[in-house]
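Re: that chain you flagged

S.,

Sorry for the slow reply, it's been a week of failed gels. I finally had a moment to sit down with the sequence you sent. For the record, here it is as I used it:
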Amino acid sequence: MSGLGRQCRNFSSVSLLKPEINSLQISIDNQSFTPNRIFCIGKNYGEHIRELGGKTPEEPVVFMKPVSSIVVPGESLFIPRHGNLLHHEVEVVLSISREGQDIPQANALSFIAGVSLGLDLTLRDVQVRLKKSGLPWELSKSFEQSAPLGLFKAYDPDSIDLENLSFTCSVNGELRQEGNTRDMLFPI
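Prediction finished late last night. Pasting the structure tokens below so you have them in one place:
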């Protein structure tokens, strides 16, 4: 612990979030909220794991992205300079409406306020290098603007089946990805 304190005192600079990030508002049917954490589940589709030559995890692989990674619809996206191979994956994005912990699985869906699609951007060359070195790979996935989001729709379990939700991603008219939540290794 004393080493950590010494490191903290020797920081030469501190980077603060842009003011607009601190006041970022996301709307769901005319109700706004300020996101404070983004939890992501990695390695949740068998086909994608095989495509990347990975191993199927026994438990969910959870990582976080900072709020500064959010790109709202209509905002310009800037590609970071610290990598050369930017990959994108379409993801189902859920807005959690209230706090909780140790929530029984039977009650979990009652915490969902909204549903959207978004992109999980990854600097794949940076991720490969970090993994080979045994280092955390946040630098490859949690950079500013690494989580563009679509518009949220209020979650209604009678009209949105989270266990069978199809999604696609096309770039310039070319289909790049299609999937369905029923293929998740660790369902919603």
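What I noticed first: Residues 16-183 form a domain with the Fumarylacetoacetate hydrolase; domain 2 fold (CATH 3.90.850.10).

Talk soon,
D.
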